[in-house]
Structure prediction request, 395 residues.
Amino acid sequence: MSRASTKLDSKKVNSELFTLTYGALVAQLLKDYENVEDVNKQLERMGYNMGIRLIEDFLARTGSGRCYDFRDTAEKIQTGFKIFLGITPTITNWSAAGDEFSLCFEANPLTEFVELPDHCLNLKYCNILIGILRGACEMVQMEIACWFVQDQLKNDSTNELRVKFIKRLEDAIPAGED
Amino acid sequence: MVIYGVYIVSKSGGLIFNHDHNVPRIENEKTFNYPLDIKLSYENKKIVVSFGQKDGINVGHVLTAVNGNVVIGRELENGKDVFELLEQPDSFPLSLKFSRARMTTNEKIFLASMFYPLFAIASQLSPEPRCSGIEILEADTFRLHCYQTLTGIKFIVVAESSQSGIEILLKRVYELYGDYVLKNPFYSLEMPIRCELFETNLQTLLENVEKSGTGSV
Prediction:
């Protein structure tokens, strides 16, 4: 996806293929674990492992610098959504301390053809996103927590992803920046 | 325009990748008569020219072969000690082959882990806060360029001093790393990089930069 392989860029992968592959993954996990809570956990873990690798791709492509303010981070996460999922969430609901914000988006490429069956209403279908965000931020020495407050799959009107800043991982900051 | 090599140092300071790109290979073979008119000494498990440079054989070059027989340590393949051989007048004339010393993988790992604290010291010595650490290290025969990513990985390119546009090259190498190393599901983080696709793409990139500059990448 870098400039070295622009051939790939010109014919971007169809988002439906992505949606279906992710659906297959979740369905398989449900089969393997049977317990919805375990599936949620697995999805988060997988996302985390993706995040710690994906961040390098993001940094290499955007050339963005370090964030010294959570508002910067919010904008960069927004860019990330645009690059990797093709959607631009809106940043809203800042907390007074400026350490918490929400990402709201209507269209969610992960859930395009999905309806949750009755026996897995507790399933956090998009939990992989949470893992990805957490992993990616951890690699740039920031600990965050995030969760879905609204989910269209649970009959909310929109998707709202809440992101909270916890702390900077001071020991992990590379030499020359601390 | 020559790029000598690319190194990648992990967040914890270990060498995870090195690629020798274009290191000129210097080799000289010459026939000598008794007595030998250059001084040899045994250092670091190699026989090194210590004094008396001539005909392209410089101080610091390593003896690699005697009459076509490879030298291992201070002995020939058949177990004969090279220094003893050189002291016997009747073994002459001898054809000795010298070449520039090449770094072993161990030495590279050693140097890479030495660069890590140097980088950290440089950033601490800085009179101004928030110093980036060593970005360029210049010597009379080469220039070392280092780019540290926000995640702490260092990309190092050693090139000829006149080579320009290395900053852009370093960013491209980072992109290749993001693509061919991290998206490789069989690569585990912080481990040495053994990804053929990465290496071939890197090779192409370096050749392009050498040939036509960074405008093309």
Observations:
- The first strand of chain B starts at residue 3 and ends at 9.
